[in-house]
Amino acid sequence: QSTFLGIPKEFPEIRIDYFKEQLGTLPPKACFLSHIHSDHLQGLDNYIGPVVYCSPATKKLLLRLEKKSVRLTRLCNEVEIEPQRMYRNLGPEYGRDVLRAIPYNTPTTIELDPCQTITVTLLEANHCPGSTMFLIENDNKAILYTGDIRAEDWWLESLRRNPILVPYTRGWKRLDCIYLDTTFCGPSMTYETFPSKTQGIGLLISEIRKYPKDTAFHFNAWTYGYEDLWIALASAFNVKIHVDKYRYEIFQSVGDASVYEYGPCLTGYSALSMDRCERMPLSEGCLTLDPNCTRFHSCERGYVCEGRAGSHVVYVHPTINSQIREPGAGYPRNGSGHEYRSLSSLVTIDVMIDANKNSQRRN
């Protein structure tokens, strides 16, 4: 749960992941959004302010988000209801296209005022579709804001290899601060290690294989960040994963691999025919709208689809550890204490601030 109030002390002119007005502070000159989980969206539903910079996938997903109550009404009553998108005020239909997408790994100069610019680079955060860290620099200062991350070994290695970060990993440049979102590290709850996502997926598949082959499963993907599990289940059992129309269209909106790398794997892709007269489907993707063609479901939890009605259904719940809970999926989307220390040791820094508690530790 993010409790960061959005103002990095090195760059007080900007806001990150918190968009409510704050007494005693000047209005921001630029804002940044790391991903679409609700604890990072506070104030965006009635936002009036400068441009909000984010990743391409975050922009597309955010403009399609709807309240669960509306989605369930549409599903359970089988009625067509006009989409009530929560953040439509940020899109072009309101005459204000507030969101600006920046591609990953592309240093981008942003003018805060005629006398002040910053350079911002988005770095993939291994958390959910579109999630990003922000490397923010000017001639005198540099910070890294992580947002939510999983600092697994392979991901840390990708940062070590990233040419943009070489000056920091080799010690030629120093970060003034890392703003670290330590969801599972605190006085009352600290997890030193977590299973990797791959380990969690492997354990889940091993448990599912123990059930009779006619058993139906419902995976409670209650938020974004569990898409790897869908893909792994589809591959392991040669099946499709049933989702409701809302979820399918959400991922269809990021179906281009240039926007979200797993988009085509989820909803498929097509190409122009030889005569360029029509598009030919080359892959259907692993998600389906047909509830009767599979025994694996990840549709809205409060709605019982045809494929689950009358069947023995095993409900799979994501957990943050590897203990099986009828069955569970040990698949934390945030990092452990060991992972956060590994990230902070990768680069040369002066101060590390826990963005959840606004406490700091000087190196």
Automatic annotation (TrEMBL):
Signal peptide: none annotated. Gene3D superfamilies: Ribonuclease Z/Hydroxyacylglutathione hydrolase-like (3.60.15.10). InterPro entries: RibonucZ/Hydroxyglut_hydro. The keyword Nuclease applies. One of its GO terms (biological process) is interstrand cross-link repair. Keywords: Exonuclease, Hydrolase, Nuclease. GO terms for molecular function: 5'-3' DNA exonuclease activity; damaged DNA binding. The keyword Nuclease applies. This is Metallo-beta-lactamase domain-containing protein.
